[in-house]
Amino acid sequence: MFGKEYADAFFKKLPNKDIVATATAFTAISIANAYRKFLRAEPDEVILCGGGAKNNTLVKMLKENIKAKVLFTNDLGISSDAKEAVSFAILAYATINRKPNNVPSATGASEPVILGKITK
Fold it and tell me: Quick check: pTM over 0.85?
């Protein structure tokens, strides 16, 4: 939906000075709308990490568009720069402990499965 054709049209419609501001607002509103559309109820808390969490304007706009308390992984003792390492550690933990860790309704899988494989 938001591929190359969309981006090309987007950049042609706006003056250069408005592109970043509009894209940032669009991102914040899209996130807020996705919570409303795809979750049973709006979350009480949202935890941000990665590059977007360092964008003060995006964070401010997101806070203006959701009711949830906004936290950062850093607030919970996990560096936002380590999100991929932590994610893979969680996946490894589930695999080692033989816990299914997919979400069939999100992936289209027919059943819960253990992701990953331990090899020697």
Answer: no
